[in-house]
UniProtKB/TrEMBL annotation:
The keyword Signal applies. Residues 1-29 form the signal peptide. It comes from the Bacteria. It comes from Arboricoccus pini. This is Lipoprotein. The keyword Signal applies. PROSITE patterns: PROKAR_LIPOPROTEIN. Keywords: Signal.
Amino acid sequence: MRRSASSAISRSALSLLFLTSACTQPEQAGGADANATYHVADTADGFTLSLDYSRYQFIPETDALIASCKSALLSRAYEVAEERGRELEPINEQRIKVSTGRNGVTGITSCAASVPASYRRGS
C-alpha cells in the first residue's frame, strides 16, 4: 500500500508540474517586435506610426504592457527614420496615444498605440 500511495503522489506532482508549465510562455527572441504589427502613414513633415501589440499574460499587468508598447513604438519610429536616411526630432512621450484591452477567455492582453514623428529640419 505504501508503494501505491507514493506512486499516486508522484503522479499528482508530475501532473501539477505539467499543468503549471503549460501556463507559462517564454519571452520571444525578437522581444516586442515578435508580438507587434506596425503601420506607417507619411505626413508632410514625417510620418505617423501605429502599433498593434498583444501578448499572453496569465496575470494581467497593464503597466508592464503599456511600457512595452511605448518602447516598441518609439524604437520602431527611430528605425523607420534610419531606414529612410533621416533623423527625427525628439519624440515627446506625452504625444503617444495608447489604449489597452484584455480577452479574459484567452488571456491575451493587447495595446494599440500611435505617435506622430517629425523629421529633423535639414536632415
